[in-house]
Specification:
There is one protein chain. The protein is an alpha/beta fold and 363 residues long. The protein has two domains: 212 residues, no CATH class; 106 residues, no CATH class. Helices cover 63% and strands 12% of the residues. The chain contains 13 helices and eight strands. Strands 1-2-3-4-8-5 form a six-stranded mixed beta sheet, sandwiched between helices. It has a two-stranded antiparallel ribbon with strand order 6-7. β6 and β7 form a beta hairpin. The radius of gyration is 29 Å and the shape is elongated. The N and C termini lie far apart (61 Å).
């Protein structure tokens, strides 16, 4: 029995089921307030979780979907937080689309647009996404020719990249670094230091121990991890399928190209050799030998080139086509919802990336 307990997996906040349940659970508001105060550097007195993540909702989403946390601050700011483990190589498009979706979600709740002070999207990533050294990055929108002039302050994005934090030497007197160490749970010494310096984190550790001991929460966390593994396997299998199709097409194209090039080269070589040895005999022998060598060499070269290009093109086309279709449909859905709520076409265009013509065609 004791041996089973020792082998039981320890879950932390990088599991989005644990993360969302921990911060959204009624009575845990002080943890989210303390984290957001540290990150946003603003005073927060109250927070309203827009949709408490209970076990029933988690059970419905256990096989996939986006588990995010949305809250409204007493200042009127809407905050959306997502923990993302797998790099899907679309963080910029994903962030823009979910920003618009968050705004649309608020409109569905009947929130007056003018009462929203700002929407802040926080992405906590267990991979490196941005080509900068900073492990905390925030976005601003400025004019191209006046970079000092900020515009469209109604939406902002934060990116916290955990692998960069691990390689840094963070000042553990800063509360945000204490929270990142606690969330990451990678360096036990840093975590102990953070909990020692921050009394709120001491209480958070007690809540985490209770939460991760709950059998139903653990079951859902395990199912979520299984879904993520299955998703990765599906992507790998998709790449393999694209690779197979690419190889097949590359082989066919290589054979055609190799045959054509071989015949052409063989004819040229045959003509040259036949001309030296004699017009009649040389032409016949040269044609035969040149055709054979040319076809052989052309086939080999064609196979190599066709295989490489087919694999590359098949994989790229498959990934691009799937991503573009999904993103396009999601943008249209968001634009449709925003049109229902009478948003200006210019704002819909900015939030979704659709053209005015495309927006006008949406019914």
């Amino acid at each position: 029995m004791a041996n089973q307990k020792e082998q039981r997996k320890e879950y932390d906040l990088k599991n989005d089921v644990i993360f969302t349940t921990f911060f959204s659970r009624k009575g845990n508001e002080e943890f989210l307030i303390d984290f957001l105060r540290a990150l946003l550097e603003i005073e927060i007195t109250e927070i309203e979780i827009r949709e408490e993540v209970n076990l029933e909702r988690l059970a419905q989403m256990e096989k996939g979907g986006r588990l995010d946390l949305q809250a409204r601050l007493n200042t009127g700011v809407i905050v959306n937080i997502e923990m993302q483990i797998e790099n899907q190589h679309n963080i910029e498009e994903r962030s823009l689309m979910y920003g618009a979706k968050t705004l649309s979600r608020e409109m569905k709740r009947g929130t007056d647009y003018s009462s929203i002070e700002q929407i802040i999207m926080i992405n906590i990533l267990d991979y490196e996404a941005l080509k900068v050294e900073d492990y905390i990055s925030q976005s601003i929108t400025v004019l191209e020719k006046h970079r000092e002039y900020e515009v469209i302050r109604g939406m902002k994005w934060y990116f916290i990249e955990l692998p960069k934090f691990r390689k840094a030497h963070p000042n553990m007197n800063e509360k945000i670094n204490q929270w990142i160490a606690f969330i990451d749970n990678n360096d036990r010494e840093l975590v102990k230091m953070a909990e020692k310096k921050n009394k709120t984190l001491e209480k958070a550790r007690v809540e985490m121990n209770y939460l991760t001991g709950d059998a139903e929460v653990r079951r859902l966390a395990e199912l979520r991890e299984k879904w993520e593994r299955d998703y990765i396997d599906a992507r790998i299998n998709g790449k393999k399928e694209g690779l197979t199709e690419g190889m097949k097409q590359g082989l066919e194209d290589g054979l055609k190209q190799g045959l054509t090039e071989g015949m052409k080269q063989g004819l040229e070589d045959g003509l040259k050799q036949g001309l030296a040895e004699g017009m009649k005999q040389g032409l016949e022998d040269g044609l035969k030998q040149g055709l054979t060598e040319g076809m052989k060499q052309g086939l080999e070269d064609g196979l190599k080139q066709g295989l490489a290009e087919g694999m590359k093109q098949g994989l790229e086309d498959g990934l691009k086509q799937g991503l573009e279709k999904g993103m396009k449909q999601e943008k249209i859905s968001i634009a449709k919802e925003m049109k229902k709520n009478n948003f200006p076409v210019e704002l819909i265009e900015k939030m979704t990336g659709l053209s005015k013509g495309e927006i006008k065609q949406i019914q």
